[in-house]
Design a protein that fits this description.
Bacillus phage protein, alpha+beta, disordered C terminus, 6 strands
Length: 141
Amino acid sequence: MDDRIHLLTLAARCEASRKPDRELDADIYEALGFVVRRKPTRLVNRRTPAGGIYQHGSFWKTLGAVSADIDIAVSLLRQKAPGWSWSLQCLANEDSLAFQALVADCSGQGVMGSLALCAAMLRALARREPAAAPDSGLTET
C-alpha cells in the first residue's frame, strides 16, 4: 500500500474511532516516520510502557496517547509540520458532541479533539507534494 493511501486510511480510522486506542497511537507514530516497538501481548509487566515505545533521535521514549491527549497531538503536529496552520473547534448540540479540525486546509472530524486533529494532520500529510512540503522531518523512502 502506498504512503498516501495508508495515511488516508489511518485518517478514516481516527474519524471512526469512538475512544482512544493504543494500537491506533502506534500506527500514527509509525505513519509519522517514527520507529515503534509495540507493547508485547505476552510477557507483559508493569515496567513495559502502555502501547510501547518509539525512537526519538537516539533515545527510546514512551509512546504518547496521541488518540486521547490533545497536547500530544499538537506536539506531534508542531514537530512534524512546524509551518502549518491549524485550528480545532467543538461542535455541540443537545444530543452529541463532536470536534472538527483543520490542518493546512485539510479537515478532520472526531468524537475527541485529538482524534479530529490527527485525522486532519494525516490528510494534510497525504496531500502534500514532496517539493512543496514544509520541513516536516519526515524522510522519503
